[in-house]
Write a structure and sequence with these properties.
about 130 residues, alpha+beta, 3-stranded antiparallel sheet, 3 helices, 8 strands, about 30% strand, globular
Length: about 130
């Protein structure tokens, strides 16, 4: 049993990308589905699908994306807010990842979105992770 589903998801994606696998299977939850949706919309993964595994919870199968020379599209994915230390950011304090070349994934009262979308909608929230 794991206590942090977001950290588990990011670790599974990181490990699958480093070993050049096509898919990463993650336990399904609403927050993980939101993160997968943001990664798909931003072009870091090819797609994802939900799979019923007989346990009632289900899985999310994430199809990883690679460049033409075989490098993963996600070069770095880091957890920012942890279970023991939550990190919240107001609109003007949201980080710029690699000077705008990466994204920060933020959970808000309007759902899971990128830092750019938060600035556009003028909402703040908990910074879950950074991706570049």
């Amino acid at each position: 049993m794991y206590s942090d589903p977001i950290a588990d998801m990011l670790t599974r994606i990181r490990n699958a990308a480093n070993s050049r696998q096509n898919y990463a299977n993650i336990k399904k939850s609403k927050i993980c589905l939101g993160i997968a949706n943001v990664l798909k919309n931003e072009g870091y993964i090819t797609g994802f699908e939900t799979i019923e595994d007989g346990t009632g919870q289900g899985l999310i199968r994430i199809e990883l994306k690679y460049t033409l020379d075989g490098q993963p599209a996600i070069s770095e994915i880091k957890r920012v807010s942890k279970a023991g230390r939550r990190v919240y950011g107001s609109v003007d304090k949201l980080p710029y990842v690699l000077n705008g070349m990466g994204i920060a994934i933020v959970t808000t009262n309007k759902g899971v979105m990128t830092d750019g979308q938060c600035r556009k909608d003028n909402v703040s929230g908990e910074i879950l992770c950074t991706v570049c």
